[in-house]
Design a protein that fits this description.
Helix content: over 70%
Number of strands: 2
Largest sheet: 2 strands, antiparallel
Strand content: under 5%
Shape: rod-shaped
Length: 253
């Protein structure tokens, strides 16, 4: 016969847990012996381990009570269901771990390979790292929210980055971020990009410029850009004066 402390030790639970199981009616509470102590049979260890295992698996205690009283076939079926749920939870947590690792490990794990290649290309042509980071931070939520758009959008960006006006825009933008709101170079830069956007729209259509990003997501990406590079707000305002609204999802008014 076992004391409550010995029972707890064998079953790998606390004395408090045993008393809780008593209160819930899961484990019978034995009578006290002549010395006033409760003594548990060896079988209580097995029963307590069953309770602990089911409870640790996330089974509600009310359901644990039902399973302990179930016949072997019912218990086996319930265990299969519990196992399937645990496997699903493990897969979900594994995906969460992978996403966390991607955020911590850098571009190559946080983004699709084609986006990483585009960001590296921007660096190769001399784009300021601040601008590259703004681009990267925009692609992360886009890839998470609308991954089906990434191949089309990145292919378009890779084609556009071969255009001299856009290359000049990227190269000049970093210098513009260090200028005052009405700096002549900033005004000239906006004039150039507005003209470039107009040519693209005339040659390829409005959708080619604006893309297929939904407005709410585009607004989020715009906010990210402005938060990361506050002068971008002034660029957006100046583009607005030239007939273009937005930043991620450019539209001609």
């Amino acid at each position: 016969m076992l004391t409550i402390g010995e029972l707890a030790s064998y079953a790998g639970v606390t004395v408090r847990a045993i008393r809780h199981y008593h209160a819930k009616g899961l484990l019978p509470e034995p009578d006290r012996d002549h010395a006033g102590y409760r003594r548990y049979p060896a079988a209580a260890v097995v029963e307590l381990i069953k309770i602990r295992t089911l409870a640790d698996a996330g089974v509600p205690l009310a359901r644990v009570h039902e399973l302990l009283a179930a016949d072997p076939d019912e218990l086996a079926a319930a265990v299969v269901q519990i196992d399937e749920r645990l496997r699903a939870e493990i897969r979900l947590r594994q995906r969460h771990r992978e996403r966390i690792a991607r955020l911590a490990a850098g571009d190559s794990l946080a983004l699709p390979a084609q986006v990483v290649e585009f960001l590296d290309h921007l660096r190769e042509i001399g784009v300021d790292e601040r601008i590259v980071q703004v681009e990267r931070d925009g692609w992360i939520p886009l890839a998470a929210r609308a991954p089906e758009l990434v191949p089309e959008l990145i292919a378009r960006k890779r084609e556009q980055i071969t255009h001299p006006p856009l290359i000049d825009f990227y190269r000049t933008l970093s210098r513009a971020l260090d200028r005052t709101d009405n700096d002549p170079m900033l005004i000239e830069l906006v004039d150039q990009i507005a003209g470039y956007l107009t040519r693209l729209a005339e040659e390829h259509g409005e959708d080619y410029v604006g893309g297929a990003i939904e407005p709410s997501l585009a607004a989020l990406l715009d906010s990210l850009a402005v938060d990361a590079a506050p002068p971008a707000r002034r660029l957006i305002e100046l583009l607005g004066e030239r007939g273009w609204s937005g930043w991620t999802r450019l539209e001609r008014r």
